[in-house]
Amino acid sequence: MVLRCAEAGVKKAVKASKAALAKRNAPCATKDQVFEVVSDGRDDSGLRLSAGDEYRVMDCDGDAVQIEVPCGADNPYFVSAGFLRSVSGFPTEDADSVNGQ
Fold first, then answer.
1. Structurally, how many domains does the chain consist of?
2. How many CB atoms within 10 Å of residue 98?
3. CB-based contacts of 32: which residues, under 8 Å, 6+ apart?
4. Which of 7, 38, 39, 94 has its Cα between 20 and 30 A from that of 54?
5. Which residues contact 60 (CB under 8 A, 6 or more apart)?
6. Per-residue pLDDT tens for 23-54?
7. Strands 64-68 and 77-80, sheet pairing
8. How far, in Å, are 14, 44, 54, 66, 68 from residue 75 at the CA level?
9. Distance of CA 63 to the CA centre of its chain
10. pLDDT at 97 over 60
11. pTM flag (> 0.85)
12. What is the 3-state secondary structure (H, E, C) of the chain?
């Protein structure tokens, strides 16, 4: 009985590990997409985006997103997906759109 419980626990752990690894290695679903900023905002590192600006997603990994802002002086910028969602139509994780999640 104890052996069966241990076996079930190991199988569950292996399955969870595989799922986490697949999620981690998933390609950035928004890569190369251009988004329009709909409300002004400033992130923690000082990047200021204004309504009407655009940015292109270069890459993403979880909540970290690398973007390019046309005419941006310090391209590329590294921002959070949460910040991008707050100023534009950047997809939510619930929509299964960010980093294949």
1. 1
2. 24
3. 56, 57, 58
4. 94
5. 28, 30, 31, 66, 81, 98, 99
6. 555 689 999 999 999 999 999 989 999 999 99
7. antiparallel
8. 40, 16, 13, 9, 6
9. 4
10. no
11. no
12. CHHHHHHHHHHHHHHHHHHHHHHHCCCCCCCCCEEEECCCEECCCCCEECCCCEEEEEEEECCEEEEECCCCCCCCEEEEHHHHHHHECCCCHHHCCCCCC
What is the C-alpha to C-alpha distance for residues 64 and 35, in angstroms, rounded to an integer? 16
- Residue-number span of the structural domain to which 41 is assigned: 27-95
Written as one letter, the residue type at 26 is A
100 lies in some domain: no
Measuring CA to CA, which residue among 61, 59, 55, 58 is closest to residue 84? 55
- Residue 17 within a domain: no
The pLDDT, as a whole number, for residue 79 is: 97
